[in-house]
Design goal:
about 230 residues; mainly alpha; about 0% strand; about 75% helix; globular
Length: about 230
């Protein structure tokens, strides 16, 4: 995959993810409608490939206004990854030479790998995750499950223990998927399935679309390095 193809795919997928998120604010306060309406227009320009790189520059500048409006990335990890992707794409588009564009875009791919590895490490050193209790608490007490029937999973400790260790093992092993194109594709399929399951079980749909948008970066990085 060429740098141009990978960056273009990431631009389109990220713009679609941002459009989907912006729909939540169409009936919000007036200032939100202005901010996210402007962002939607810029996303459509980005998808159409019009006036590059200015839609990216506009989205990056607008992201600062949105951060100020909500006093930070109000939706946590998915917003942080979206911001990282947006700024890496913007800086890559503005770099005067190809090596610097590769550095900016490659950084995004490296951060994707670290997002899984660090998440796995945080879990494996947490005794609640190693025992399955963390997942049990999520199903039993949190507001995340999209169906009350899912809370019954809290009564299946062995299943939750297996699920906990499956997630930990996958996240810690994800960097090994870079060894070949085949293993990377398999790893990304597993990762996408993991995010899709979180969207279906817990309503965390933003993570699915945002992380999916960054996958071209890791595909390009693996091809560039190996």
């Amino acid at each position: 995959m060429t740098l141009e193809t990978a960056t273009r795919l990431t631009e389109v997928l990220l713009a679609l993810a941002l459009l989907q998120q912006g729909l939540e604010h169409l009936r919000g306060p007036a200032d939100e409608r202005v901010l996210f309406g402007a962002r939607s227009v810029l996303c459509l320009l980005l998808i159409a490939g019009v006036a590059q790189p200015w839609p990216l520059v506009g989205l990056a500048a607008l992201s600062l206004a949105i951060l100020w409006r909500f006093q930070g990335p109000y939706n946590g990890g998915s917003d942080r990854m979206g911001l990282l992707a947006l700024w890496c794409l913007t800086l890559a588009a503005l770099m005067p030479t190809r090596p610097w564009r590769e550095v900016m875009f490659g950084y995004l791919g490296a951060q994707l790998v670290l997002s899984y590895l660090i998440s796995g490490w945080v879990k494996v050193v947490n005794p609640d995750w190693r025992s399955g209790r963390a997942l049990r608490d999520v199903f039993q007490f949190s507001a995340y499950p999209v169906s009350e029937d899912l809370r019954r999973w809290a009564e299946r400790p062995r299943v939750l223990l297996a699920m906990s260790w499956a997630v930990i093992a996958f996240e810690l092993a994800f960097p090994l998927s870079l060894l070949s194109r085949e293993t990377l594709i398999a790893g990304l399929v597993v990762a996408a399935t993991f995010h899709l399951a979180n969207a279906c079980l817990f309503g965390l749909n933003r993570f699915f679309w945002t992380w999916l948008a960054v996958y071209p970066a890791i595909l390009w990085l693996q091809d560039r390095l190996f």
